Give the backbone structure.
Amino acid sequence: MLGRGVKRKWSCLEELEAEELPNALVIEEKKQDGEEDRGEQRSKSNMSHLQQRQLVLSLCLEKLQHYQAGMELSLRRSVLLINTLRQIQEEMRCDGSDVRLHSVNPDMCLLRDDFREDESVTCPGCAEGDRESPSLSPPLSPEMPFQEANISLDLQKSLPNTVSNTFSDAGNAIGYLSDLALDDIFEDIDTSMYETSDLPPAWGAGSLWPVSVSFWPDEDAKSRSSAGTLQSCLLDLNELDHIMEILVKS
Amino acid sequence: MAGVAGGNDFQWCFSQVKGAIDEDVAEADIISTVEFNYSGDLLATGDKGGRVVIFQHEQESKNRPHLRGEYNVYSTFQSHEPEFDYLKSLEIEEKINKIRWLPQQNAAHFLLSTNDKTIKLWKISERDKRADGYNLKDEDGRLRDPFRITSLRVPVLMPMDLMVEASPRRIFANAHTYHINSISVNSDHETYLSADDLRINLWHLEITDRSFNIVDIKPANMEELTEVITAAECHPHQCNVFVYSSSKGTIRLCDMRAAALCDRHSKFFEEPEDPSSRSFFSEIISSISDVKFSHSGRYMMTRDYLSVKVWDLNMENRPVETYQVHEYLRSKLCSLYENDCIFDKFECCWNGSDSAIMTGSYNNFFRMFDRNTRRDITLEASRESSKPRATLKPRKVSTGGKRKKDEISVDSLDFNKKILHTAWHPKDNVIAVAATNNLYIFQDKIN
């Protein structure tokens, strides 16, 4: 694991990823051979896009949350912000399925649901999670790169703290999501959390947000650790929607 | 009428600037709307402090023909006061969102002014004589005992200093749940419409206790809300036709003859999106901030964040003309989103002959486009060039590459100085440009 406050460059993440690639995935990708290059190119060109998406997303949340108390919101602004959020959500949802299938095999696409069901029956939470996380997580949770299984377990333990923090401060939560190369985000991470020994409580809360369902359908610890932060953030978003609704209702 | 600029024969020059010079700008002094009346003799401004200031055109004299663009304060009054909505626990700002003049019918002038919730009809009238010599009343105005009046005196009208009175004649309240963004007087001169984020109401100018709701786009479930009304205007000649624009970049034209409730539009103007320029901000920048019919009624103009478009009412699938206002900001959208500028609502206006259009930008720049020659010009409203009849120098923003002399780089634009509201004299080449708390008046240069 990289030390606290050490910047992780994309190339570094990629290397980590490569090391972490589970055999199943490697085999799968070998099968797809030619497609691999294209996929790689795509992921690189997507980087700035994903970065921007994170930025827009975090600003959206911030803007929706930091309205002036006592003043009526501009409905136009709120609607435009919420539509932008929806657009990002939709895009993430598409990305999720994209990533899951590596956007190669149209047959797999058609069979997606059955395919998933089969997997979870035959191999509950092993290959599936590993298959998804490498390509998904770097842009989403760059602060939690892929480590040995035991480290990811540590991360998992640390999450309850993160979640409770993020509920009070959406802006903070976004820090965990984004790859904005802001050093202070790293400063905000309390490393003492990693030492906590309590096991996390139930993860049920995540299911409130549809994105999380399509993103991380499995029980794998790694994907949960990244999903958890996003979920908590999106939960905030859900609450915001609710607040907005109350505020604008005539 | 001459073109907007660029030609050898036509230039804009400074005429006047109104408002304080102080660097410290009081929030209440920020101009929120500018509007010429039908003759162009009066120019009204509204501000965030709820005040309306009316300027009157200085009468030209043969000795001083350059006074064409000179306006002096005619009347100032407090149109709206801050209020508090006790049911919603929300403040209602006094800020004047729009002013619309009524066509003049008699010696008095009438205008409508609105804040977020309440529209008021004001009468502005002059008084320069007073009746003198009544013997029915005491000096202090009390009626005298009739038995003590022994003779009947006919009062005489005595001249006095000109007094301009503004009096509220009608108050149209409690009809809008959301923020009023537009008011527009109909060509029948009897009705007007008012639009908020989700509804449009039709009023009779004489009747304050009821209005017809002609458009309602509020979904039963507010969670399904994806679009708001951003502006609305009546057709200048056909009193049954009006348009409204939306935050999705579309314009709907409605015909009130078709049905009392115009939920179904007659025409739907939309330009297909260019997939190559799609970004997270596509919808935000396509949101229309203003819509204006041409004086002829044949065209309408819409302003979105980066461009201004002219639509032929007979062609719905694309605009006939598109002008880029500040295309160089496309690469800056993320920071403009961050600092909230992307939500700024720029307005636009036609010149008297519909041959040119004007709209605002940042850094106190404003743009004019000549529809015939397709020439455009960027001018700046600044105190530095505010010497009487000083010619305005065209400004240029450098777009990538090396910055030439006299060019300003995109990064040094001041996004706090924005020109949202402008007005063009209906008959003459005189323009009014609101720059924060200052009102600039420019005119074309007579050689």
Notes: Chain A touches chain B through 25 residues (CB under 8 Å). The two ends of chain A are 52 Å apart (CA to CA).
